[in-house]
Design goal:
One of its GO terms (molecular function) is RNA binding. This protein has 930 residues and is α+β, with helices and mostly antiparallel strands. The protein is built from 21 helices and 38 strands. The two termini are 47 Å apart. 44% of the residues are buried.
Length: 930
């Protein structure tokens, strides 16, 4: 049995050991350095030193100091399963926690005189050795629920077998040596931090709804904002994680948002999800006079599968029983018949007899629960506080962001004030106290940070004599605008152009379409792009029809008029037109290779459209100018232009022609939690010019939820060959710097990235004969570290730290090369810095150099005139992954998997792979993803 490996802040896969290193062949998963203790082994690169560049400032981080245990910790493996069942079926963590609580409190209190802590899965930790009579293992039989102390009839009592096996003793001295940089991050150190995490989470896990690292509280909600109005609610709570730093251990505490199923009557829950509030007919099938379509029932079934409900089979409250909802019947209770005691009767008749009254809604569908029984919906109640692991519907995203986003002052106050301390329970928790942890009450820590200088960018400007020249400028507060500026390399001319309107004519007329083109043309001309003076070929589309065929007809119409296909098709979409967008992008990216630009009808519509004319100068309305300018940024780079570049003459820039640099960003995305039969998608993006402004992408499909990119070698070869095609013959022999930013991998997967992905990169470079020195950096965005400026800091923007804030010394890894960088300007809520971990580097960049290069790359994102939160190629890779759905024919159905059939899910993944179409050759070398 493998033991858990704790990455910085959580349980992950087993660490790489010296024994595991032998026989690996390719890759460099283990690295040694004489800088610290010579015997210390790391997964990533040893820290070369701390950065010193930039303006030094003081900030606050949401970390709290704590002590480490001063006694040996005893580690036990936990096995839980139903006693009468021969197979050891995995039980849910929620039930496991209840069983261990029952074991310690009632079944064997003499064994647990000092309560042990438990993570709900396999790990139990005790500060004193459990009395097992000189053996390492002991079995206990726990009856749950007991006859007293639990709601009567909540479920039928079962006997569970719990087996505890001692696996290790952890001396905290090991952890002390690790944080001093004198010991490797081995299994003893990782298990010690795992134990500390379990200790601080134990009390909230007993009291509140929780997941692996966070817990959520019902009374922390604003009723007005927490309701997503579709059967889901937002609960707020707290995240907490122990993190080792140089010469100390901290607790990272942050607010967290959980999505829970709405508690209460199941009838109301179903109506809410179908958006048919207080409409009983919504849950009655068509054949019984209702409005429930089969597709709606299946949608509801996918949403509610696995939901725990309380069912009532009699008048007394003692007959309430907890069940798991599996599916919904296709017929109403009055139509469903079964044989009971030799008599055939309907479900509605049966419950009439049981309840002593008729059902209020006898024609409604029924809930089928885990044991196969059918229960009328009106007799079911959803148990509140159940976390959903499904993806939140897109239409709820705005409400969720508004609920979860807290201004910095509000966020830090919510973490530090008395209610938070009370709910975290450090002062009252017997577990925290007995393990010797002592979180300090003096609030979050103050740390040193630095603010890096923004890079100089270059665009074109017109001087007083009317000459257009290159001119450098430095962004202010992480942003700039293109007013009085022109693109560095505008596309020569866009012609012909077509316009396709998919919004209803009553909401977006042909006059609106004409005005839209005139304003867009005016903006593009102002940015240096030549546009035809004649109106575009237009078509009003039918959203319910086949979009691909309609676009093909539009192309033929343009070809008949101009003897060539359109270079650009502008598409006007309605609100919530996601399916239409997918069809349009499939047509352009995969089907024809014609560049398309979608615009929202609500954003591009102008007042008095008939007042706009191609013959007269046009001044765009101030209310929409920013939207049109952003669209112009996308169009120029999609067609091969360049908006701005990092100034090549600036000192210490990454865009140095004498030191050619390839920058790659890689990402993988996976199906939503709970989805089966869906593959994962991977993307690699890299620049093909020395200005690091032109990028190309390669994307692939692979097995579901596989994080390591299997086809990375082939994807890298595609991009590297395009890089070579853009180089002069003499430059091809120069040594190249390759910086590979990898997004989305957890710390437990670092060894696999080094073993497989680094090896694939090296093989690709060798095959195309590029002599390159590699630096491999993992980018992490999904963490809970937040930085807060000092009160009245003049450089703060909306309460956030200024862009360019970098931290590497006081909250970084004790030994390895990592840093936090907040590169963007915080606009909404509290900014989240990105975390960069350097796993490998031949380039020997200093901390200052790599931090500066990384920050500068955040200014090269072509779709915006501001620095973004991660380097542009990483951002692009994320976009390319999310656009993978556009590679399917929108009118050729790819099957959905049945969640109960694993073998069907495997076949469905193969169907997805077969249906996945490659990018069209006409856009392979363009930034089609912009």
């Amino acid at each position: 049995m493998s033991r858990p490996f704790l990455g910085r802040g959580g349980v992950r896969n087993p660490p790489v050991t010296p024994q595991a290193k032998r026989g690996r062949g390719r890759g460099t998963p283990i690295q040694h350095s004489a800088e610290h203790e010579s015997h210390v082994i790391t997964v990533g690169v040893k820290r070369p030193g701390f950065g010193v560049a930039g303006k030094h400032i003081k900030i606050t981080a949401n970390y709290f100091r704590t002590t480490i245990p001063d006694r040996v910790i005893h580690h036990y493996d936990v096995g839980t399963f139903i006693f009468i069942t021969p197979d050891e079926k995995k039980l849910p963590a929620r039930l496991n926690m209840l069983l261990i609580q029952e074991l310690q409190t009632y079944t064997a209190p003499d064994v647990f005189k000092s309560p042990a802590v438990y993570d709900g899965r396999k790990n139990m930790f005790a500060i004193v050795q459990l009395p097992f009579d000189d053996v390492n293992s002991k079995e206990f039989h726990v009856t749950y629920p007991r006859a007293s102390g639990f709601p009567t009839g909540s479920k039928q009592p079962k006997v569970y077998k719990i087996k505890l096996t001692k696996v290790a003793e952890i001396n905290p001295e090991v952890l002390q040596r690790f944080i001093e940089g004198k010991q490797s991050y081995d299994s003893a150190a990782t298990t010690a931090i795992t134990a500390m995490n379990v200790v601080v989470r134990m009390q909230p896990s007993i009291q509140y709804t929780y997941n692996a690292r966070s817990f959520f509280i019902e009374d922390d909600q604003d009723e007005r904002t927490g309701d997503l109005r579709n059967g889901l609610r937002l609960w707020q709570g707290y995240f907490q994680s122990i993190r080792p730093i140089k010469k100390g251990v901290l607790i990272n505490i942050d607010i967290a948002t959980g999505v829970v199923f709405e508690g209460g009557p199941l009838v109301r829950f179903c109506q809410s999800h179908l958006k048919r509030h207080d409409n009983p007919r919504a849950l009655i099938p068509n054949d019984l006079g209702g409005s429930l379509q089969d597709r709606d029932r299946l949608k509801l079934q996918r949403f509610a599968h696995g939901l725990r409900i309380m069912t009532r089979s009699g008048l007394g409250s003692g007959n309430n029983v907890t069940r798991v909802l599996r599916k919904f019947s296709s017929h109403g209770a009055s139509s469903l018949e079964f044989t009971h005691n030799g008599e055939t009767k309907s479900v509605a008749q049966y419950y009439h007899e049981i309840l002593g009254r008729p059902l209020q809604y006898p024609d409604m569908i029924c809930a089928e629960v885990g044991n196969g029984a059918l229960v009328p919906l009106e007799l079911c109640t959803v148990i509140k506080g159940q976390l959903t692991r499904q993806q939140v519907p897109p239409e709820c995203a705005r409400d969720m962001v508004a609920f979860a986003s807290k201004p910095p002052s509000q966020r830090i106050r919510k973490i530090t004030e008395a209610p938070a301390a009370r709910k975290l329970g450090y002062a009252t928790s017997v577990y925290v106290r007995q393990f010797g942890l002592s979180p300090t009450p003096d609030g979050p820590i103050s740390i040193n940070a630095r603010v890096l200088e923004a890079p100089a960018l270059t665009a074109k400007e017109m001087d007083r004599k009317g000459n257009i020249t290159s001119k450098a400028f430095v962004p202010s507060k992480g942003a700039w605008n293109m007013d009085k500026k022109k693109f560095y390399a505008p596309i020569a001319k866009i012609a012909p152009v077509a316009l396709f309107v998919l919004e209803g004519e009553e909401r977006f007329s042909l006059d609106d379409a004409n005005a839209c083109f005139i304003v867009l043309r005016s903006v593009l001309i102002g940015l240096g792009v030549a546009m035809p003076a004649e109106p575009p070929v237009r078509r009003l589309g039918q959203p319910q029809g086949n979009i691909i065929k309609q676009l093909e007809e539009l192309v033929e119409k343009v070809r008949a008029k101009t003897n060539m296909p359109p270079q650009l098709i502008i598409v006007i979409l309605p609100e919530l037109g996601n399916d239409l967008y997918t069809a349009v992008k499939h047509f352009g990216d995969v089907h024809t290779g014609i560049v398309t630009q979608c615009m929202k009808s609500s954003k591009c519509k102008v007042e008095n459209p008939r007042s706009y004319s191609l013959r007269a100068p046009c001044k765009p309305p101030s209310g929409t100018i920013q939207y049109y300018s952003n669209v112009g940024l996308k169009i120029n780079v999609k067609l091969g232009g360049i908006n701005t570049i990092l100034s090549p003459g600036a000192p210490n820039t990454i865009a140095d022609p004498l030191n050619p640099t390839i920058v790659m960003g890689a990402d993988a995305i996976h199906p939503a939690p709970g989805a089966t039969g869906r593959p994962s998608y991977t993307a690699l993006v890299g620049n093909i010019d020395c200005n690091i402004a032109k990028f190309v992408a390669s994307t692939r499909i692979q097995d579901s939820r596989v994080e390591i990119i299997h086809d990375l070698k082939e994807m890298a070869i595609e991009i590297l060959k395009k890089w070579q095609d853009n180089r002069k013959e003499g430059d091809r022999k120069k040594v190249v710097r390759l910086i590979f930013y990898r997004d989305g991998v957890s710390e437990g997967q670092f060894p696999k990235v080094l073993e497989e992905e680094l090896a694939a990169l090296k093989d690709a470079l060798q095959e195309v004969k590029i002599n390159a020195k590699i630096t491999l950096v993992v980018v992490a965005k999904r963490h809970h570290v937040r930085f807060f400026p000092r009160p009245n800091d003049p450089d703060a923007i909306k309460g956030n730290c200024p862009p360019g804030t970098v931290v590497d010394e006081e909250v970084g890894h004790p030994v390895e090369f990592d840093f936090y960088l907040q590169s963007h300007t915080g606009i909404l809520g509290t900014s989240r810095p990105s975390h960069y971990s350097v796993l490998f580097q031949d380039n020997k960049f200093s901390a200052d150099t790599l931090q500066r290069f990384t920050y500068h790359l955040c200014y090269t994102y072509a779709r915006a005139t501001r620095a973004v939160s991660i380097p542009a190629p990483v951002y692009y890779a994320d976009i390319v992954c999310s656009r993978a759905k556009n590679h399917y024919d929108p009118y050729a159905r790819v099957p959905e998997a049945d969640i109960s059939l694993a073998d069907k899910a495997d076949k469905d993944i193969e169907s997805h792979k077969a249906a996945f179409k490659p990018l069209h050759k006409n856009v392979e070398s363009l930034m089609y993803f912009s």
